[in-house]
Specification:
The protein has ten helices and eleven strands. The protein is an alpha/beta fold. It folds into two domains: about 80 residues, 3-Layer(aba) Sandwich (Rossmann fold), CATH 3.40.50; about 130 residues, Rossmann fold (3-Layer(aba) Sandwich). Helix 7 links the parallel strand 5 and strand 6. The longest helix has 21 residues. The chain is globular and about 55 Å long. The N and C termini lie far apart (about 50 Å).
Length: about 290
């Protein structure tokens, strides 16, 4: 029997509807959540992501503003802008769209953002709070994955979760989020990476498999056990002459084969992606409530 599709578009829409109610209550108190996005350079993908986030803000009543700079912007100028946003009372979340051009240190950018406005959850202060089990802002994609699991009826508690990938955006923060003694967590977590031996032997132990390594269709049917829940974080372009663009997006999982034995699986696109934006909005609203 084909797997249940975990619909990220539907679940993210439900989350955004709930945020609208919170925003109405905040506005009754004279507060409007505000998100500032900063983009340096003309990376096409970054432009698309920023535009999507701005549109999502508009849809639910969050104030947003975007600062766009040429790719030769000096690092010092960007730091000045971040400092200004740190001081702006109408801005509760600061989003600096990565990647940055070579002359700008992404580490310095992250450190420059006020942790109280770090709605991406990248600042070391917020990472540290997450590890102590007292989170302020959790990173958006891992938080979106956690929400997908809970809201689709696949609570990780007591399950063996195997994460493929140890990157700073997904695998590394997601592991401690899922093994915490907390709601939507309390799982046994294994992280696999390029140094892992006998990988299929480990992935076949997973009750929940999370693929986040950035390799198109890497996870195949023989690597999972029947009844597994699969969360596919990958977004990979592959050539497809049958489409107008000449390419299409696929995940890190071979969807057609794995979906035949999994109990539930996320699609690509339409799975984790919409949840990342929903969590960014949620963190911005939370920041407004806190500040």
């Amino acid at each position: 029997m084909a797997a249940e599709i975990i619909d990220g578009k539907k679940i993210s829409a439900e989350i955004k509807e709930g945020l609208k109610d919170k925003i109405i209550r905040l506005k009754e108190r004279g507060k409007v959540p505000g998100l500032a996005a900063v983009m340096v350079g003309d990376n096409p993908a970054s432009q698309v992501y920023v535009n999507m986030k701005v549109k999502a803000c508009e849809e639910i009543g969050i104030y947003s503003e975007v600062s766009r700079y040429p790719k030769d912007l000096p690092e010092g100028e960007l730091m000045k802008k971040i400092d200004e946003l740190n001081q702006q009372n109408n801005i509760h979340g600061i989003l600096v769209q990565f990647p940055m051009p070579a002359q700008i240190s992404e580490e310095k950018v992250i450190l420059a953002i006020d942790p109280k406005k770090d709605v991406d959850g990248f600042h070391p202060f917020n990472v540290g709070m997450m590890l102590t089990g007292k989170p302020t802002f959790l990173p958006c994609t891992p938080l979106g994955i956690q929400e997908l699991l809970v809201r689709s009826g696949h609570d990780p508690s007591g399950k063996h979760v195997v994460i493929l990938g140890r990157g700073s955006l997904v695998g590394r923060p997601l592991a401690p989020m899922l093994y915490q003694k907390a709601k939507g967590a309390n799982a046994t977590v294994t992280i696999c990476h390029t140094g892992t031996k006998n990988l299929p032997d480990i992935t076949r132990q997973a009750d929940i498999l999370i693929a986040a390594m950035g390799k198109a269709r890497f996870v195949t049917k023989d690597m999972v056990k029947p009844g597994v829940v699969v969360i596919d974080v990958g977004t990979n372009r592959i050539e497809d002459p049958t489409t107008k663009s000449g390419y299409r997006l696929v995940g890190d999982v071979d969807f057609n084969s794995v979906s035949q034995i999994a109990i539930a699986i996320t699609p690509v696109p339409g799975g984790v992606g919409p949840m990342t934006i929903a969590m960014l909005l949620s963190n911005t609203v939370r920041s407004c409530e806190m500040l």
